């Protein structure tokens, strides 16, 4: 709202602009002039929340709309002045009774205010609507005041009217807000968080909603107002209560994600233990709850904040960082708070299928999360393409309108999304016959219900001295792990036996064991197991099949398997590039044929590579081979197509197996990149020879003949296996047809590709 400084600035502007003052005086002699004052509601808060760049966009848009309005005949606007978010419009009026003129001016003001609001909100600069205050006053032609004095009082009156409207509105809003708190008049809506490996709901995020059709229906308004009134803790307590009450009675293994503003924990009203009492009242446990730490504001005191979170962790709660990538100090928060889940903001997920930078960023975060035994939740998934990309990158969970919209109930995952998840998860788990999974090395384990007495578990260990651990279950679902050594250490303390002997094993179990589906590759299991803290690093890994326990895996068996797999892979991989060799290429081709789906094969071969090796030596030749391997792998990533394969047949021969819808486009991209980057491996003398010869050189071919060439070139043979019965294909048929195409490509000059197809029966 404008203050006296604004008045003085305006008056100074008008006094120093004689043309403006003369215009107003001249118009006043003919008719009264109406002043309409407009101001953006809560503009200071908007700037604090969204920053000055967003505010600049709003002001530029508002100015443009005012310019357009001044050119129209609406209210016959004579002139306008804009100071920040304060707008002053001078309108030509017809002489009439004061009351009638004032009422008419207010009508014009309201009409203009609504029109400007609507047009501003159509621009969608903010997620919430922008609103304007308005005030009016009339400059009368019969006034004996000077023009300066007349303007000053008119401005003051218009601003006072708008301020009175704002004060009255705020008082009413405060009363409405207090009534919401007193009556606990809010509801919880729930949006599913979906496993991207099973397609099932892993949990639900509770989202607060105010009274329907009220100013506080939108959660942003509700929580912003609570923060301004220093009632954030009170509101979050009610929101948490409502969320827990409605969640009670669900599958006991579903997670409830509750939002927690970082400032609430440091609120003087904050009382630990209230959530636990509420959970017990509705037969829930802390293991059901994940606290989402929102980054609406920066966390200033990480030390205190971390201690409070540790208090919650010890009770069994888990922690998530919300909106990572859009908040204040995401990386610092992750490093300090060590969350169990990282929720990646919609700003990163949006269009990730078309934005390479976003893809690389998410890929890096997923890799980082794996190393610290943390789970990634991709927020705001709205398209099939976004879902496909985050699955292929390895995100653990997803959330967004495509998977399920927020609602008062607990909606399941859409059939379309489940089908898509199951379709795209398969290649990661089954595409390679060399991939050993947790299910391949799982062994049976003794299980106890969570209410089993500690004494019974001790008795079992005493009978079987070679058994290292047991799994604690609720039905068929694992809820904890007890390792022999740790149990006996707890009982060996001074009061261990009298304190725990007749109590349930739940008191001493590890409520956070590493639990993995049988389909998880052993390599992934190894990485997650070794990322655990030192006290847990040799504990069993629990294996499940669709959420139900199937057994355990020891660290020893994981490491032994990893060693065997690496030895086997090394035998079947090219030592120079690390790419799959001939045996794995053959298995991949057999798998593709067995799927009976269209695919294409691209054979890559270097021309005049022997000449290059003779010219520069094998060391630089090896660098070119590695360059080609990396180029082909990068091309598959850019192609953004699932289930791609690159193999190294030997020497300078490579193979790509792809489902790309336009493999010719892929070939053109590869050739373009190769011709551009191969020059990096030439010396200056060779580059000068190429340039002086118009791109041609004299080289020696494999037969020892000197022939004209364009240096090292790339020949691609594209073989399309499309539209027919794949069962008639064989490795021999493919090899023969590909050989014919390679010969044709070799006969042409420069880097080229030749396309052909396998004739399939329909």
TrEMBL record:
GO molecular function: cyclic-guanylate-specific phosphodiesterase activity
Classification via InterPro entries: CBS_dom_sf (IPR046342), Cyclic-di-GMP_PDE-like (IPR050706), EAL_dom (IPR001633), EAL_sf (IPR035919), GGDEF_dom (IPR000160), Nucleotide_cyclase (IPR029787), Rev_trsase/Diguanyl_cyclase (IPR043128)
Superkingdom of origin organism: Bacteria
SMART domains: EAL (SM00052), GGDEF (SM00267)
Domain GGDEF, residue spans: 31-175, 597-762
Cross-referenced SUPFAM superfamilies: CBS-domain pair (SSF54631), EAL domain-like (SSF141868), Nucleotide cyclase (SSF55073)
Short name of one Pfam family: GGDEF
EAL domain ranges (all copies): 170-420
PANTHER family per the UniProt record, alphabetical: CYCLIC DI-GMP PHOSPHODIESTERASE PDEF, SIGNALING PROTEIN
Protein name (record): Diguanylate phosphodiesterase
């Amino acid at each position: 709202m404008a203050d006296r400084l604004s008045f003085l600035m305006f008056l100074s502007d008008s006094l120093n602009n004689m043309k403006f003052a003369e215009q107003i005086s001249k118009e006043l002699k003919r008719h009264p002039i109406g002043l309409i004052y407009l101001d953006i509601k809560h503009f200071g808060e908007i700037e604090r929340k969204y920053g000055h760049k967003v505010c600049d966009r709003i002001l530029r848009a508002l100015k443009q709309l005012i310019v357009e309005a001044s050119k129209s005949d609406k209210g016959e606007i004579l002139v306008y002045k804009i100071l920040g978010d304060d707008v002053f419009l001078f309108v030509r009026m017809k002489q009439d009774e004061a009351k009638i003129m004032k009422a008419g001016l207010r009508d014009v003001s309201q009409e203009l205010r609504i029109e400007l609001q609507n047009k501003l909100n159509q621009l969608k600069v903010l997620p919430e609507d922008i609103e304007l205050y308005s005030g009016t006053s009339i400059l009368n032609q019969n006034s004996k005041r000077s023009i300066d004095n007349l303007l000053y009082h008119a401005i003051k009156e218009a601003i006072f009217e708008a301020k009175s409207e704002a004060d009255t509105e705020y008082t009413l809003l405060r009363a409405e807000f207090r009534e919401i708190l007193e009556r606990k008049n809010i509801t919880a809506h729930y949006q599913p968080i979906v496993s991207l490996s099973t397609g099932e709901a892993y949990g639900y995020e509770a989202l607060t909603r105010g009274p329907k059709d009220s100013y506080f229906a939108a959660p942003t308004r509700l929580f912003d107002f609570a923060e301004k009134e220093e009632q954030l803790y009170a509101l979050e307590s009610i929101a948490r209560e409502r969320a827990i009450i409605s969640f009670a009675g669900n599958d006991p293994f579903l997670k409830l994600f509750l939002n927690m503003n970082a400032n609430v924990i440091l609120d003087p009203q904050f009382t630990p233990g209230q959530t636990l009492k509420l959970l017990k009242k509705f037969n829930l446990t802390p293991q059901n709850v994940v606290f989402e730490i929102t980054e609406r504001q920066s966390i200033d005191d990480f030390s205190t904040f971390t201690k409070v979170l540790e208090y919650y962790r010890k009770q069994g709660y888990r922690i998530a960082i919300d909106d990572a990538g859009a908040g204040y100090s995401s990386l610092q928060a992750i490093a300090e708070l060590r969350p169990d889940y990282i929720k990646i903001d919609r700003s990163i997920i949006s269009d990730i299928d078309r934005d390479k930078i976003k893809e690389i960023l998410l890929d890096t975060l997923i890799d980082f999360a794996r190393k610290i035994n943390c789970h990634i939740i991709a927020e705001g998934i709205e398209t099939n393409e976004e879902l496909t990309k985050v699955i292929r990158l390895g995100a653990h969970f997803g959330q967004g309108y495509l998977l399920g919209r927020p609602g008062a109930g607990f909606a399941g995952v859409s059939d379309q999304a489940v089908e898509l998840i199951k379709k795209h998860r398969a290649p990661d788990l089954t595409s390679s016959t060399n991939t050993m999974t947790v299910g391949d090395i799982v062994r049976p384990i003794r299980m106890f219900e969570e209410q089993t007495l500690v004494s019974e578990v001790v008795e079992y260990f005493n009978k079987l001295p070679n058994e290292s651990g047991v799994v604690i279950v609720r039905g068929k679902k694992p809820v904890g792990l007890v390792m022999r050594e740790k149990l006996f250490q707890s009982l060996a303390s001074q009061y261990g036996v009298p304190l725990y002997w007749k109590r349930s094993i739940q008191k001493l179990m590890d409520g956070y064991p590493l639990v993995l589906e049988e389909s998880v590759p052993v390599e992934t299991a190894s990485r997650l197991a070794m990322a655990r803290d030192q006290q847990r690093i040799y504990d069993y890994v629990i294996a499940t099949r669709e959420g139900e326990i199937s057994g355990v895996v020891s660290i020893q068996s994981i490491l032994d398997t990893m060693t065997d797999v690496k030895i086997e892979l090394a035998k079947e991989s090219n030592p120079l590039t690390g790419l799959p060799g001939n045996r794995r290429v053959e298995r991949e081709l057999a798998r593709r044929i067995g799927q009976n789906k269209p695919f294409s094969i691209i054979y890559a071969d270097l021309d005049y590579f022997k000449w290059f090796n003779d010219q520069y030596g094998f060391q630089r030749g090896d660098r070119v081979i590695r360059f080609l391997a990396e180029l082909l792998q990068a091309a598959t990533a850019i192609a953004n197509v699932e289930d791609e394969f690159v193999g190294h047949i030997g020497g300078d021969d490579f193979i790509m197996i792809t489902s790309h819808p336009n493999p010719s486009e892929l070939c053109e991209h590869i050739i373009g990149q190769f011709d551009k980057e191969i020059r990096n491996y030439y010396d200056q003398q060779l580059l000068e020879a190429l340039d002086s010869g118009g791109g041609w050189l004299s080289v020696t071919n494999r037969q020892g003949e000197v022939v004209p060439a364009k240096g090292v070139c790339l020949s691609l043979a594209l073989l399309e296996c499309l539209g027919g019965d794949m069962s008639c294909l064989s490795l021999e048929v493919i090899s023969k047809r590909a050989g014919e195409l390679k010969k044709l490509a070799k006969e042409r000059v420069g880097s080229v590709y030749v396309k052909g197809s396998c004739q399939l029966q329909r």
